């Protein structure tokens, strides 16, 4: 039934949805729930960035900055010379752009029919991804009217290769998202499984999207595979974000793809989706990459310390992570994670209770890696809560 406060034009499935949850925090909490880089810019760089942004021509539409940024990203990360770059307002927008590019809409079907003169009843486009994984893959499918197919991971949160290959053969998805490493589990999937799954996607005419949002903390990047085996990865898009690096507030995502594929994706991108301020901040970050690399080194070391410490706790199962977060499962009562979350919050430490996100995450908490002092406080609060 339509609410009297809403126009009837609002879709029923949208009215039934819940918005993406963003925790409302208060000053004084140790915030370890959103996989943010806990380190601010050093004061000298803050001053330098402020002076630089003050000179940006905010009265003009983006142009020169975004062009320079695409070139700088390709150079900095060593993308193949034959590849293009597409910019997005965070990875979220890139996911939507990719889904839009493969969406079978009524005009697209009419165009197909006009080519051969035959009517065509095409099924909806399909997005496929392992689960649990980043929730925006499924949300983008729902909002655009695509079909979403989720393939459960194995108990250790590795890819179920046989199930993935079977699902790809059965559904022939237009898009397959592979978070590398995965969120919220932090798992780095095995190279051989990834290769066989990506090959199957290509054989069925689809695109494989390797989402490397957490690459700064990982020991691998699929760009190495792209460069070593270009023909096998011509249908692969490598997607990244600068959010986890340390620019979550800037909202800058980007993807690498063959120039031909990047050109097609770019057609569905709003012309000025990345502001001059976003682009200038990203250029500044690339010029000071050593600072962010040093921060990432500290985060990786702290991740190892947390994993080692919590592995000794009899009430916790710790899953190996290649991201800037650690997934732990409480071994006690079914409500233990929820109770521990509340108890930690009462001690001023905010982590993420992911227990209700997927059945495989029952009784799980996701812990963002913070500063050394924050991590010490988090460990004490979690042990106290248990």
What are the SSEs and their pairings?
Layout: H1 12-16, E1 30-31, H2 43-54, H3 64-76, E2 83-88, H4 90-102, H5 106-116, E3 126-131, H6 135-144, E4 147-152, H7 161-171, E5 175-179, H8 191-203, E6 207-211, H9 223-228, E7 236-241, H10 243-247, E8 253-258, H11 259-266, H12 276-287, H13 289-311, E9 316-318, E10 325-330, H14 336-346, E11 349-350, E12 352-353, E13 364-368, H15 372-385
Parallel strand pairs: 1-11, 3-4, 3-5, 5-6, 6-7
Antiparallel strand pairs: 2-8, 7-8, 9-10, 10-13, 12-13
Helix pairs in contact: 3-12, 4-6, 7-8, 14-15
Specify the biggest β-sheet.
7 strands, mixed
Summed over residues and divided by their number, the pLDDT gives a mean of: 92
Q: SSE order in H/E notation?
A: HEHHEHHEHEHEHEHEHEHHHEEHEEEH
Distance between the termini: 44 Å
Query: Can you count the beta strands?
Result: 13
Strand content: 15-25%
Low-pLDDT parts are: none
Write down the oligomeric state. Answer: single chain
The strand order across the widest sheet is 2-8-7-6-5-3-4
Note the overall shape. globular
The helical percent reads 40-55%
Radius of gyration: 22 Å
Question: In terms of structural class, how would the helical and strand content be classed?
Answer: alpha/beta
Question: With helices defined by DSSP (H or I, 4 residues minimum), what is the helix count?
Answer: 15
